[in-house]
Amino acid sequence: MNRSGQSVAKVSETGKGSYAGLEAVLGGHIAEASTVCADGASVYNRLASEHGLNRVMVDAFSSKKGCYSIQHINAYHGGLKRFVREFNGVSTKHLNNYLLWFNFATYAKETYTEKMRLLVRHIMTAQSYTRRVDVPNRPAIPYICQAVNKVA
Question: Count of CB atoms within 10 A of residue 38's CB?
Answer without folding.
Answer: 19
